[in-house]
Write a structure and sequence with these properties.
40% helix, 13 strands, alpha+beta, 697 residues, two-stranded antiparallel sheet
Length: 697
């Protein structure tokens, strides 16, 4: 038997794989070496995070987080004993982990995640627990006193007698949360000279922020805080407020800023960080390094040997699973009151994941549904769908979708859409007889009006040029809210007229808007009429568009689109526009579309197991003047949709957006077209909601 000491697993097993990807601008090589030494002393949980200052400081803090899955609390407990960590903090952490891993203990449910943050890279004795702070992600559990539960967790981790903070102020932070806001995390800042408690508050807005800060006793300047909040709110999707509590509330105030997507797929990260550079809060080299961090590290791309435990797990997973580490940005925190200028920190990291082959259309149509298709949560489908859509707004009020996971590099080059998707969802909600829906639709319209200069229309997202489709849906939203004659809508309508081509159809982009080298490079997007875009604009009373649609209907009664693989989308919009005209010939066109739609419906009541296509066929059938003719078909479709609604009120993403190259005039049969689904399910759910709401009485 060999007398050599066994090498025990540690966080370094995964850190060594990711170290070559760490940008020197964020983590200098000397600090990488120190971090590697620290990771060799930490538990073998294959994920880690880094906190870096975006100014001149090179300090880096290391984070490791745990959940109750895969016996992670027990893994850390075993590591504490194996490493010989001693002292009161190590003992209480071990006791907390024992309770947290017990499903019968209230702490098991109350704490969603536990984060260990090791402050700096100080060298200490190997048997000592490295200096750390602890962060608890609080689960939103109904029927519990969240303050009492949180206080119990804090006491379990640091003891009743050495809290170093005011319990009364902490309780006030919970009680002061307005409707919809909540405390999402608490942090025990044990590594500081004066221990304190960090409180993170989510879902405050510009109106409720001053009252909240005043109520909890924050001593800073409220106008400054609100001003910074409003500036940041325009750039990001969510902001959490961070307070530090000792014997009093600290004058420091943090804003944790997060975006839903990841670069390079989501260009909003680049725009947000660029603003921080412009304001002098971020080093330009660090901005570029952050934008370049997200991606994948796989066995094929790694220069280091893949850890043996992961190789073993991959063999057990099967041939359709590939072990990988995903690199992600988490958030950027802006802190007021610590230095003369606001201080910015970025939080990024990696975690282990399993890659799978791309899902095909049918797989996505079934995802998230019970195998028997019979389970249906309580409540009307319309109400549950509305609840889902209202909950899916960003903190600023936008709806986002189509972040676009593609099969090869998993990146959607255009970034997620907010303007187009918000206009579409808002137009759907504006047609509902619900005060909540109407308010959300009005908020969406206000965001659109605020986002762009007057009279240029709207685009796919904030960085994309204006386009006819997004502008048409913005105008449809305005019309549904009774704002069609408002100055912003009138001027945008004038802009929409600029997309009309000689044949009466609308191109998506204006000539020259894409900045391509030659006109031939954009002939498909800016010089070709797109039936789907034309159909979206036709209901606004655009006569050339209506004439174009009459000529474009196919012999089978359908219309095909440019951006959509589902002809049901274009056919539903075109039929809807023609149904609003008084001409009998147009009603015959609508009836022909309905006959086509009936032929698309399968025996199970669905169209190719797609909630998106099925709902659009329902929308078409609802346009027939005699509902009895199509009643049975509609009922079968609606029964299928009801059975396949998810517990959260959504339907599985099934809106397939096709993206031909800008030079492609006719995408039919073009293999080079990329496509993506509405991965958030927002677009599909809004489409189903629109169909159900239009159902004849």
């Amino acid at each position: 038997m060999s007398s050599a000491r066994a090498v025990l697993p540690s966080l370094a097993d995964s850190f060594d794989l990711l170290a070559p990807s760490l940008p020197p601008a964020l983590i200098p090589p000397a600090l990488t070496s120190e971090l590697r030494q620290l990771t060799r002393r930490l538990a073998p949980l294959p994920r880690a995070g880094f906190e870096v200052r975006l100014g001149s400081s090179s300090r880096v803090d290391l984070q490791q987080w745990l959940t109750t899955r895969d016996h992670e609390p027990q893994i850390l407990r075993e590591h504490i004993r194996r490493a010989g960590w001693s002292g009161p903090t190590a003992g209480r952490l071990d006791e907390f982990l024992a309770r947290w891993s017990d499903p019968a203990d209230p702490l098991h449910v109350a704490c969603a995640e536990l984060w260990l943050e090791f402050d700096g890279t100080a060298q200490i004795a190997s048997t000592e627990l490295p200096p750390l702070s602890l962060f608890l992600a609080l689960a939103a559990v109904d029927g519990t006193n969240r303050f009492q539960t949180t206080a119990a967790m804090i006491a379990a981790l640091i003891g009743e007698g050495r809290a170093g903070f005011s319990r009364m102020i902490l309780e006030r932070c919970f009680d002061a949360c307005p409707d919809g806001a909540l405390i999402s995390h608490v942090g025990l800042m044990l590594g500081r000279p004066k221990p304190s408690v960090r409180v993170n508050v989510k879902r405050l807005d510009g109106e409720s922020l001053p009252d909240y800060l005043s109520h909890v006793g924050w001593p800073g300047a409220l106008p400054v805080a609100v001003g910074v909040f409003e500036e940041l709110r325009r750039l990001v999707d969510r902001i959490a407020i961070c307070l530090d509590i000792g014997v009093a509330v600290s004058p420091e105030l943090g804003f944790e800023c997060a975006l839903d997507g990841q670069p390079p797929a989501d260009p909003d990260w680049s725009a947000f960080l660029g603003k921080l550079v412009e304001w002098g809060w971020c080093n330009r080299a660090k901005r570029e390094a952050l934008v370049g961090w997200p991606g994948l590290t796989t066995p094929a791309s790694s220069s280091a040997s893949w850890p043996a435990p992961l190789i073993r797990d991959e063999l057990l997973q099967g041939a359709d699973r590939l072990s990988a580490f995903e690199r992600r940005l988490s958030h950027v925190k802006i802190t007021l009151g610590r230095t003369r200028l606001p201080e910015a920190k970025a939080y990024f990291g990696y975690f282990h994941t399993w890659l799978r082959p791309p899902l095909d259309h049918d797989d996505i149509g079934h995802s998230g549904i019970d195998p028997d298709g019979r389970k249906e949560p309580s409540g009307r489908p319309i109400d549950r769908a509305l609840g889902f859509l209202l909950a899916r707004r960003t903190q600023s009020g936008w709806w986002r979708d189509f972040s676009g996971v593609l099969s090869d590099d998993r990146r959607w080059r255009a970034g997620a859409s907010d303007e187009w998707v918000t206009a579409y969802v808002g137009a759907v909600l504006a047609g509902l007889a619900s005060d909540r829906a109407q308010r959300a639709a009005r908020d969406g319209w206000a965001l659109l009006v605020e986002r762009r200069p007057p009279g240029i229309g709207w685009g796919f997202n904030r960085l994309a040029p204006p386009d006819a489709d997004s502008t048409a849906w913005g105008l449809r939203l305005a019309a549904a809210l009774g704002q069609g004659a408002s100055p912003p809508a009138r001027r945008s309508r004038e802009a929409l007229n600029g997309y009309i081509l000689a044949d009466g159809g609308l191109a998506t982009y204006r000539d020259g808007a894409l900045g391509l080298p030659s006109a031939a490079d954009s002939v498909g997007w800016s010089r070709t009429a797109h039936v789907c875009v034309t159909a979206a604009a036709a209901c606004l009373g655009c006569r050339p568009a209506l004439e174009f649609l009459r000529r474009a209907q196919r012999e089978d009664g359908s219309w095909t689109g440019y951006w959509w693989e589902d002809a049901e989308y274009t056919t539903a919009l075109a039929a809807d526009a023609l149904h609003a005209t008084p001409g009998s010939a147009d009603q015959e066109r609508v009836e022909a579309a309905a006959v086509w739609a009936v032929g698309r419906i399968g025996l199970d009541g669905s169209v190719r197991q797609s909630a998106f296509a099925t709902a659009l066929c329902v929308r078409i059938l609802n346009l027939v003047d005699d509902p009895a003719v199509t009643r049975d078909h509609r009922r079968r479709c609606i029964a299928w949709l009801s059975a396949h609604q998810r517990p959260d009120g959504a339907w599985p993403p099934s809106a397939r957006l096709r993206v031909p190259g800008p030079e492609v005039a006719n995408p039919a049969g073009v293999e080079s077209c990329t496509s993506t689904f509405d991965d958030a399910g927002v677009f599909t759910t809004a489409t189903v909601l629109m169909a159900l709401a239009s159902e004849p009485a």
